[in-house]
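User: My collaborator sent over this chain with a note saying "see what the structure looks like." That's all I know about it. Can you take a look?
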Amino acid sequence: MASTVQMSIVGSQLTAATILCCMCGLPIQQNPTNMCVQCLHENVDITDDINKKNTIHSCRSCNRFLGPPWQQVELESKELMIMCLRKIAGLSRVKVVDAVWVWTEPHSMRLKIKLTVQREIMNGAVVQQASVVEFVIRNQQCKHCEASYATGAWKAIVQVRQRVSHKRTFYYLEQLILKHEAHADCIKIVTFRDGMDFYFKDRQQGVKFIAFLGDVVPIKTKYSRKLISADTTNNTADFKHSHLVEIAPICKDDLVVLPRELASKQSNISPLVLVKKVSNHICMVDPLSAERTDINSDKYWRHSFSPLMSSRQMIRYIVLSVEAILVEQKPSARMKRLVLKSNKGKGRTEEHVEKTRAVAALAECVVVRERDFGVNDVQFTCITHLGGLLQTGDTVLGYDLTNTNFNIDEEDESSMSKMSIPDVILVRKCYERKGERSWRLKKLETEKGEEREGKYSKDDYDADMEDFMQQVEADREFRQQMNIYRRTDHKGNKVSFAAKKTSAADMDTEDAEERDYDAEEIRLEELLEEMDLNDEDEVHEDEKQQKNARHMEEFRILSQEEAAAVTAVFDLATNAPTGAEEEEDDV
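Assistant: Without extra context I'll predict from the sequence alone. Here is the result:
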């Protein structure tokens, strides 16, 4: 027979009947235990069987946590929560309905989780209680880092080399590796004057890294292996694998002379061209006609050629006058696709194609060497593909061909003699910079190897790095392939971003929009702000109080319907997919 709850009428209100607590005699509402909350809390603790002091191991070098297996997880993440819950002994005796992180100091080496659990005690009564479980982080070296410090632990090495006099290509390659995290499986990285060595504990990891290099730069590879040990009984052997990766000795802004056969296959373009971009193909532009052509990696290695002049040979010019050259040429369908793809999401349509082509518009410029400015009256008149960027008074880098000897083959020299060689070829515009740059680039953690030949001094390093930084500043398409971060001072404050802006009051609205669209210098919206997990200023005082308040235990008596509803919600949240877990590292 179902029990009924008696009600007493007081005036016009209904009041539930109360009973006396069997322990202290306080009047309470009826419940299956016939005890008040305070007495139930003193006599019953459903969290006694839960181990509230636990230990979790973390690798100090790579910040991985031992599940097992070793996994790369973030602090206070869902994956780390699941890993910690599996380590709590006695959790199977209760129902977990909620689990949240309790904020701790990053340097305290402690993790705290507030658990809310349910358990049936007596007469069908379900009690819900909250408790804080603490984890102490202990340092332990993972198998991946243990192998990196062991002698002879690597199984594959990828030796990346480029036979040039500078290291700008490796600065660019370093940023691509950082952005795509292609170095995640590397045991060790060693730098040399002409390249870098990447060590891996498995050959497949090295092959995967070579595939990444083939997608970003033109390369050719050679493979060899060395026998370490062999077991003739089981027909097994242990090898060390070596991959030599040679990058094409062509870099951005180089001046090259194409072989006559290759130039004729590339729409009969002029042999004298500038390297505009280097990826898995080489993009070149004719500075006298603004025509462009692409050479893929296979085609380059069949018709290999070396640069005629590199960026170290460029000198600074000052522009005295610029006069546009009108050429009746409609933009190709390929150019329209590239423009619309590059401006996707920016509100740019086909009407901006002509503005984009203005960057590569031809112009006749009168320039003078910066070192000769005000000293003599030697001026040069040249045709450039930078007509959409240059203005009177700008500083531009270019090649001086007046006293240059071309070290090329006789066949290529005959084709060069048939064309008029300009005195000056302008390469890129220089943007004014006052003081320290407001942006920075990250670097790989590397070791310096022994130099086998030549010497790469600190002055050479600084010169190549400054040249690379100027390339990043002057080419928006070039820097879109890397992550650029906003610089902070020694106190952690962001450096003020001082970008040169043009007032729209001095020009028409359409001209102001075109000037802003054609600008190649770095803008504030292109910079990323690096997150610092140790920055306590980002944690507000009210958030600290809310997180610390979670230490207070909650004690409730639930009905069967409430307990089932809370458990169903928690099961639905914890059964959500969390992504594939990492496999255990085999050494």
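A starting point for your reply to your collaborator: The first helix runs from residue 37 to 43.
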